[in-house]
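Exercise 3.2. Students should predict the tertiary structure of the chain below and write it as C-alpha cells, then compare their answer with the key that follows.

Predict this chain's 3D structure.
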Amino acid sequence: MAKSTPSPKSHWRLIKRLLTLAFFALVAFLIYRYGRTLDWQKIWRSVQQIDRSTLLLAAACSAGSYAVYACVDLFARHAQQLPIAKARAMAIAFVCYAFNLNFGSWIGSIGFRYRLYSRLGLGAEQVTRVVATSLVTNWSGYFLLAGVAFTFNFVKPPAGWEIGALGLTIAGLLLLASLAAYLGGSAFASRRSWTLRGHELSLPNVRFAVLQVLVSSLNWLLIAGILFVLLRQHVDFATVLGVFLLAAIAGAATHIPAGLGVTEAVFFAVLGGRVPHPELFAALLTYRALYYLLPLCVAIPVYLLLEARGRSSGLATANSESDRSTPLPPSTTDPGIRSGSVALSSHQD
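Answer key:
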C-alpha cells in the first residue's frame, strides 16, 4: 500500500505551529527574565500610588473606547440593511470585543458573533459579512495610525531588534499604501465587487470607508490614552501610541489571547530604560484590569441577557411561522382578503 506524501499545506501548518511554540517560549523567557528582576512589593506600592483622578480618567478612556467599538457592527448593519435594532447590534459588538480581548478572535470576534447573530435569524453568509466588515472597520484605523507612527519614527526599536528603524519605516509606508488603496478603490473603482472562494467581497462608497477609518482611529487613540494616563506623563503620547501599536500587531500576529506577555515584553523592551520598572509594570497591570477584566465582568451578564432574548425571539418566530401554516377559516378565503394578508406578511418580513 503506497504511503501518502504530505502536502505543502501540511508542511506550512507544521512550520506555523513550530514558530508559534517558539514565540511562546520566547515570551515565557522574557516574562521570567523581567519578572525575576522586579521588586513586586514596589510594584504593588506603585499601583497603590495611582491617584483616584488618574484612575477615573483612565477608566473614562476605557469606557469611551468600548462605546466607540460598540458602533463597529453598525457599519455591517447599515451595509447589509440588517433587521436588527441598533442597541442590540452595539451590545453584540461590546460582548464580542470583551471576549475577543481576553480569549482571542476565534472565540470573541468570530465565535460569539456567529452564535449571537445566528440566534437572531441571520444565515452563515450574512454573519460572515458582518465579521468581515467589523474586522475591516477595526483595522482601518490601525493602518492609518500605525502607518503614521512607524513612518515618522514615533517609536524607535531597541538595539538588536532585527526589524530596525528602516524596517519599521517600510512597514509604516506599506500600511499607509494599503489604506490609500482601500480608500482610493472606494472612491474611484469602476468594479465594486468580487467573488473569492464563493464569498462576495464588495467595496463601500468612500464616505462609508472614511467613516470607518475615523471611528476606528478614535478607538485606538482612546486605548493608547489609557496607557498614557497611567504612565503619568513619564513618556509623551506619540511614543506611547507608537509602542502600543507595535505591541498590538505583535499580539495579533502571535494569536496569544489578550496579548499576554507580548504587550509587557514590547513595553519593557522599548520603555524600560525611560520609565522605572515598578511604575511601568504597575501601569500595565492597571491597564489590564481596566480594559480587559472589568469589561469582561460586564460582558458576561450582557451576553446571558442577549442569549435569553435571542431564545425568546426564536420562540416567537417559530410560533409566528406555526400560525402562518394554520389553514385560514372559510370566511377568509376571499381572494381580496388573501392578497391583502400576503402583502402584509411580506411587509413585516
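Discussion points: Residues 314-349 have pLDDT under 50 and may be disordered. The first strand starts at residue 193 and ends at 196.
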